[in-house]
Write a structure and sequence with these properties.
This protein has 126 residues and is mostly helical. Helices cover 56% and strands 7% of the residues.
Length: 126
């Protein structure tokens, strides 16, 4: 599924809280209901809540009623959409992959690492 295209039209995103999914929701300024499953997802969910762009619920607390209740809060609470829009603006102003590549190139030039091959320790291969 072309998630960015769907998010461009969405009013709400129910997600597991993977970093890529959350970044795509921020890019589209869509509030999130995060249902973390593992790894870094609980931390990402907490941060989404801290930033005001969504709510979170534990997997074991998911029910039709709980999801409906939280979705209604997200859809009708203007502060969630406002926070998501603020994050969208910050993300766009950050410069995206072009700025990231530029920063890496600047660092390599500044440290004299540009053009030198990376040292690889082959003794650690399994």
């Amino acid at each position: 599924m072309p998630q960015p295209e769907v998010l461009a039209r969405a009013a709400l995103f129910v997600t597991h809280g993977g970093m890529n999914s959350v970044n795509e929701a921020m890019y589209a300024a869509v509030p999130m209901l995060v249902v973390p499953q593992g790894a870094d997802q609980p931390m990402v969910a907490r941060r989404v809540v801290e930033l005001g762009a969504g709510l979170t619920i534990r997997t074991q607390d998911v029910s039709t009623a709980s999801v409906r209740f939280l979705a209604e809060r997200l859809l009708h609470g203007p502060r969630f959409r406002a926070a998501a829009a603020t994050l969208q603006a910050a993300q766009h102003e950050a410069g995206g992959y072009r700025r990231a590549a530029g920063e890496l190139e600047w660092y390599l030039q500044a440290t004299g690492s540009a053009g030198r091959p990376a040292l690889v320790d082959t003794s650690q291969r399994g």
